Amino acid sequence: MHVHILGICGTFMGSLALLARELGIHVTGSDQNVYPPMSTQLEEQGIALVEGYSPEQFNPRPDLVVIGNAMSRGNPAVEFVLNEGIPYTSGPRFMADHILRDRWVMAVAGTHGKTTTSAMLAVILEHAGMSPGFLIGGVPADFGLSARMGTTPFFVIEADEYDTAFFDKRSKFVHYRPRTAILNNLEFDHADIFENLGAIQKQFHHLVRTIPGNGLIIKPADDANLNAVIDMGCWSDISNMGPDSDWQAIPIADDGSHFAISHCGTTQGEVCWSHTGRHNMHNALAAIIAARHVGVQPALACEALSGFRGVKRRMELVAEINGIRVYDDFAHHPTAIATTLEGLRARVGSDATIQAVIEPRSNTMKMGIHKGHLAAATAAASHVTWYEPEGLGWSLSDELSHSPVPATADHDIDRIVSTLVSEARSGDHLVIMSNGGFGGLHQKLINALNQKASA
After folding, report:
1. Pfam families per the record (predicted)?
2. How far is it, in rounded angstroms, from Cα 101 to Cα 89?
């Protein structure tokens, strides 16, 4: 069977490609923007990539085309598939039909933390000898791959609320039918497809409706937006977590690098790791509760997470040059930006310099939906550089004027790199935040720092 994937370099579709190949399917694909880590991962696995959407890519004709949710009518490849009558489906539907059937699906949903929490859960199950399958929207360092089939019934999947395809506007996660579901948090996002918070809550309730009565929902007790979802109707057991709940993560170190897991007032174990931030404590707690649902004791889960190596592009330390540390982070929402910077600040102390460099790249960012909330999210930084690309559609001037820390905006990536290099000193922390390639800024910065160091 030959499957061709349109939009193959997206985190979800690239992972799906790996799973299909593992099933023995011949996989090819195309994308408009090809950049690491997904492009590298696919090439390493021997999956042929075509750049662009020319109809010539369908020679030889595939048996099935999987169409990514970034594809729309008018795309040359989409139009060719429709005109020629080539069988097609969506990525989530392909997952449901070919990967998830007869599996114990463990889904991780929420506005923030899906990738990291999914990776944590997979690492816990692996440490417990359960060899899970997984599909994660990033590349966990512990596995080196974003997806695999696994050898047991358990399958961990990052459950995205974004729409399925141009021909199916339901959220991806309604296709997965999990038995164990983590609902990490819920805020307004994806303004390009959801008109308001209520529209997202409706999709989350569609997910809740698919969870069996003997399944489990794991959620924070104090998330009003998720509580409203549950109030629409719930037929499954719920494990609440957080303050005044049966399950709690109790900090031992202020920066979140050491904490205890408590259940009904009894300590179950401790996690001591290299990661920071209360948000990661929360993610860990959710993963530990989910693992317990399939029989992994919390003490063993804590042991697994103490060695957790993290996920590429989630506060990943990509270089240290002359004492200057460069991080790559995927944050593209005010809450994610704030929690990431706060976690780093708690780790490095009040005197260290944290330089944040942020690209407003997500569709919601580009639409200006978070305008008025972005500046406050950077309070834990020492200085912020905002990338203001051509065609952003709104001005960053208000964010600069209300910034709690010194802030600048620039539309020239090379000039941003030059300024960062000239001002950076040993002991500084440079945090690059973008959910895309950022015009190659990461590597340009590393190259320039290395050049300065060797001069």
Report:
1. Mur_ligase (PF01225), Mur_ligase_C (PF02875), Mur_ligase_M (PF08245)
2. 16
Residues whose CB is less than 8 angstroms from the CB of residue 67 and which lie 6 or more positions away in sequence, other chains included: 6, 7, 78, 81, 88, 89, 90, 91, 165, 166, 167
Position 310 in a domain: no
Answer with the residue of higher pLDDT: 374 or 40: 374
Give the residue numbers of the binding site: 110-116
pTM for the model: 0.86
Cα distance between residue 95 and residue 160, in whole Å: 13
Same domain, 340 and 384: yes
Quick one: which H or E segment has residue 182? strand 180-183
Where in the sequence is the domain holding 43, given as residue range(s)?
2-91
Residues 160 and 270 in one domain: yes
Tokens of 165: 């395809």
132-143 tens-digit pLDDT = 999 998 889 999
What are the tens digits of pLDDT across the range 355-366? 999 998 776 676
For the chain, report the end-to-end CA distance as a whole number of angstroms. 55
- State the residue for tokens 């200057």: 324
On whether the CB atoms of residues 95 and 136 are closer than 8 A, the answer is: no
